[in-house]
Each structure stands twice: as C-alpha cells, then as structure tokens.
Design goal:
Length: 146
C-alpha cells in the first residue's frame, strides 16, 4: 500500500500545503476509524499544535468539500465524522450506542445504479450509504439491562 502523502493530497485538492493542514490529514490517515473535529483537535494539542476547534472544523469542511476526506453525518445528531476516503469504495455500519464504525466492503448497489441509470437517463457518479444500528457488544449489554 502506498503511504499517504498529505502534501500531495492537498496539492491535488488545489489547497495550499501548510504544516497545520498536513498535520490534520496525517491524523486522519493514522486513525483506523473516522474522527470528529474534537478528536482531531485533541490529537493536535497532544502533538503541541496551537490548535483551536473552529479552525480544525473549518479545515475539515474544506477538505470534505474538495473530496480529500469523507464526511459522515450521524443521523439525528449534530455531529460529523471525518475520515480519509479509502481507495476502495466502502459503506459503514455505525453503532448508535458506542459510535463504533465498521466498514462493509461489499457494495450491493452496483447493479441498482445501472438499472437506475437506464431508467432515468441519469449519469450516476456515486452514492453514499451508511447503516445505523447496535453492534453485538451493545446489543448484549442492552439484553442484560432491559
Ligand atoms: Zn456499540
Ligand atoms: Zn456502494
């Protein structure tokens, strides 16, 4: 696997490569799961960056806008998670209790997109699909308390 190059990624997005922006992208690259702006902010502080939450949030929004990162919005919550778009197309199972996120690599929508394209004459460029529920760990906890 090619190592992620934050400077290269910023260049591709037409953004100026600053130390701060590279640090944010590197934090996302090192994380196994998508992070919230707060998570990134705390990690920047650990790395001794003079960070503030609103600039972190703005940088993440800019990256999402330029398609450098993937933005996931948890249903019914005013909270977004950001992750590096994987080279592979993936969907996510999101646990509403503990917030764990599992990537599902199999995409069931390829055939559906083709059918839809034929029916609507739409040129389909992509889709998002996130699935919400309760993970096995949280399900068994619930089973005990309810
Ligand atoms: Zn859970
Ligand atoms: Zn898909």
């Amino acid at each position: 696997m090619k190592r992620f190059d934050a400077g290269e990624s910023l260049k591709q997005g037409g953004l100026k490569s600053t130390r701060y922006r590279r640090a944010i992208l590197d934090i996302l690259a090192e994380s196994a799961r998508p992070l919230s702006a707060e998570d990134v902010f705390l990690r920047l502080k650990e790395l001794s960056y003079a960070a503030n939450l609103s600039t972190v949030y703005r940088a993440l929004e800019t990256f999402a806008h330029k398609n450098l990162v993937e933005k996931l919005v948890i249903a019914g919550e005013n909270k977004a998670l950001f992750g590096l778009g994987r080279a592979e197309h993936a969907h996510h199972l999101i646990c509403l209790e503990c917030r764990s996120i599992l990537a599902v690599e199999h995409c069931p929508l390829g055939q559906y997109e083709e059918t839809l394209a034929k029916e609507t004459a739409f040129e389909i460029a992509g889709h998002n699909l996130d699935i919400y529920g309760y993970c096995p760990k949280c399900r068994s906890k619930k089973g005990r308390t309810v």
